[in-house]
Amino acid sequence: MRIGEIAALVGLTTRAIRHYHHVGLLPEPERRPNGYRVYNVRDAVLLARVRRLTELGLSLDEVRDVLADDAGRELAEVLEELDADLARQEAAIRERRSRLGALLAEPPGAAGPVSPALAALLAQAPRTDSPSAAKDREYLTLMDAAGAGGQGIFGVFGTLIADPAVVELYERLDALAEAPTDDPRIAPLAADLMAVVPEELFAAIPADGVVVTGFREALLAEYTPAQAEVVGRLMDAFMERGRG
């Protein structure tokens, strides 16, 4: 094979191959009397290996070390390893496409890329335009990104989020947007919110709590004063119940 042919075969440019020759990553094959380099199957496998390793983020120096470890190995063994690499890549692509398909099926305004566990949880949630419900979806997404969710705790949340009464509670919280902090609706709403929390969720709270330093303040700042009063009371009662 000539350089243009092997470049097309392995998905590289002729310029890249010449660069690999220049830096000593790939031995330069002998030239024929007409001046053309002639490449064989081993060269193609080596270049495919280089391409795969660089796609994984390895530097050329790191690739050189890997190739040195490959020296002397049977061609079939290297080919099998390349095939296994491609199989893993295909599986990763299928998983990404599956998650992308789930995202495309979501309604406008959904939370975005999330784990399968959270996606399943959000699928149970009743449809509502409540701003408070939207905030809760954002917090669940934050938990998911921080690794604090998972099938177990999100499964417990499923009991809560699927409760039809939750939508009414969200709407009552929305109604406090312009209320003062001494509004008489605050205490009953905090109590009613606490009442719908499943017992299993309390058991899932770590002994040292779940509120990272500064998170409580940051969370409450997202609400108006009366709403923050409700959420603050709920957080306090929630943590106290969890320690009990």
From TrEMBL:
This is MerR family transcriptional regulator. Keywords: Coiled coil, DNA-binding. GO terms for molecular function: DNA binding; DNA-binding transcription factor activity. Residues 1-69 form the HTH merR-type domain. Residues 72-99 form a coiled coil. It comes from the Bacteria.
